[in-house]
Amino acid sequence: MLSRPRLVQLGAGALPVPGMTVHRWHLGNHWALHLCRSHSLLEAAGKSMDITPGTASLIPPRSTMTFTRIERGGPHLWALFRFDAAGNRELHHMLAGNWCAPAGESFASLWTLFLEAIGRRPLQPLRAEVIFWDLLWRVLDHWTDSPRRTGSMQRHAPPELVEACRHIELRLAQPLRVAEIARQVGVSHNHLTLLFQRHLHTTVVDYIRTRRMVQASLMLSETGLPIKVVAAEVGIPDLHQFNKAIRREFGLPPSRLRGP
Hints:
By secondary structure, the chain is of the alpha+beta class. It has helices spanning 85-95, 107-120, 125-145, 159-170, 178-185, 189-200, 204-222, 227-233, 239-250, and strands spanning 6-13, 21-26, 31-36, 39-44, 47-51, 55-59, 64-71, 76-82, 100-102. A five-stranded antiparallel beta sheet has the order 1-8-3-6-9, with helices on one face. Strands 2-7-4-5 form a four-stranded antiparallel beta sheet, with no helix packed on it. A hairpin with a 2-residue loop joins strand 4 and strand 5. Helix 5 crosses helix 6. The chain starts with 5 loop residues before the first strand and ends in a 10-residue tail after the last helix.
């Protein structure tokens, strides 16, 4: 699981002189994210990439970046950030050697989010990190879903699976049937089952049961809601069945999971 990035520095800049190398930077242990509104050539990670307005680039650690201006253009936004070792490996795996791609129609919203992170950081650094985390996921989501993406990068979460999980989370208090979930997300019962097995290594029914138990545990330990209300909120309104489910999952009755 990708950990939250830790921002090191971020800001806005411009590449001022056509045809001139204006920026060379060895990243060390940091990743670099750029959103560009200019034409330039980026050399990094052993590759040369054409940067056009509306391009996002994500450069891995221990790379030397060289930006060469091709023609006049707008500014660029940049950020340096780092992960722990596990996060670095996961992001390398997700990108599979592809560091640069057009952001398409998402570019304007990414740019706005980036500007907000820059503006928030001096006085609200934690909020800026959260905004940047959202921004980074949006970049990765766009690259994952884009038909222009090639190479070995694969979608980690197919949109049908994401929508099925969202459907389940929003309806834990209601009866949930696999066939109905599949219909809602536009796939067959068998295909939905395959998605859960392939990506989450579980069945749809077991996923629903686990999510209900996790939600019940949180509500019992973190709120003062009556047990019967918690049971209803996670879709098991029969108290006898709820008690059995909690005992089977946690080895304790619901009352023992209550917070102090």
